[in-house]
UniProtKB/TrEMBL annotation, chain A:
This is MPH6 phase. One of its GO terms (biological process) is maturation of 5.8S rRNA. Transmembrane segments: none annotated. It holds the Pfam family MPP6. Residues 97-110 have a biased composition (Basic residues). Coiled coil: none annotated. Residues 76-110 are annotated as: Disordered. The gene is Mphosph6. It comes from the Eukaryota.
UniProtKB/TrEMBL annotation, chain B:
This is Exosome complex component RRP40. It comes from the Eukaryota. GO terms for molecular function: RNA binding. Residues 110-158 form the K Homology domain. It comes from Stercorarius parasiticus (Parasitic jaeger). One of its GO terms (cellular component) is nuclear exosome (RNase complex). SUPFAM superfamilies: Eukaryotic type KH-domain (KH-domain type I) (SSF54791), Nucleic acid-binding proteins (SSF50249). Gene3D superfamilies: K Homology domain, type 1, Nucleic acid-binding proteins. It is found in: Cytoplasm; Nucleus, Nucleolus. GO terms for biological process: CUT catabolic process; exonucleolytic trimming to generate mature 3'-end of 5.8S rRNA from tricistronic rRNA transcript (SSU-rRNA, 5.8S rRNA, LSU-rRNA); nuclear polyadenylation-dependent rRNA catabolic process; poly(A)-dependent snoRNA 3'-end processing; regulation of gene expression; TRAMP-dependent tRNA surveillance pathway; U4 snRNA 3'-end processing. Belongs to the RRP40 family. The keyword Nucleus applies. Keywords: Cytoplasm, Exosome, Nucleus, RNA-binding, rRNA processing.
Amino acid sequence: IIEERSFMPCEDLLYGRMSFKGFNPEIEKLMIQMNSRCKEEEIEVDDKMEADVSDEEMARRYETLVGTIGKKFLRKRDQRVQKDEDEDEDGNSNMRPSKKAKKKFLKPQD
Amino acid sequence: AGGGATGVAGGAYWVDSQQKRYVPVKGDHVIGIVTAKAGDVFKLDVGGSEQASLSYLAFEGATKRNRPNVQVGDLIYGQFLVANKDMEPEMVCIDSSGRSSGMGIIGQDGFLFKVSLGLIRKLLAPKCEIIQELSQLYPFELVLGMNGRIWVKAKTVQQTLIIVNILEACEYMTAEQRKQALAKLSGN
């Protein structure tokens, strides 16, 4: 026989802090958490936050972003080539057949 | 004094009787009033035979540099860490995982009053009618301490006092009388 002094396990009491009609929203959230330990139905809380930027806009932004950052790492000559290409594309429908290849380091041949 | 109820729940038996004096029990959540600040420890009055101690580090996010802003006279909602008849009771405002989960300093305003322990148990029962009926009236906040103390806060002083009066009167009102009183109020 074990003696228990508290009433908590006997009567399955609720949590002592409560708020009603949205007086204190944090406590209301807490109430749902605490009381879901009882055998009652758990109220599902919608965790999805509203996005400030829509998914479409995000995709569009990323598309151009990759190009912009990529340009940063090009060497100077390649930057000029890219710029010419862009300008040309607006004017001509034909793409330049020869694109200047990236100049690699040439090993001295003995 | 007075009768009580006995109950059985999964192998446990208990005897419930009316009593007004609270005896600190480990794990109980209570409302304490800060009576003194002694260096790193606060002394709280919880309505028991002696005062409980509460360390300033027993709050969520408290460090030696970052002390909680507790003044004498503040209300604290916490639970007992240590509570036996041989030692001074000790309270904390943090649970075993280190989160405050609603415990800590109870905010400004509001009204604190005392009721019998039996009423607290009635109010904390799952699906308590009193609480459900009151929650329909107007928005308010309620903290129930197992030591017989209740703290209420509503938008206006008048609303707060109405809730206080209903809770105090629930002690002896029957369900009928209570429903009548609430009907009158919600009619206003």
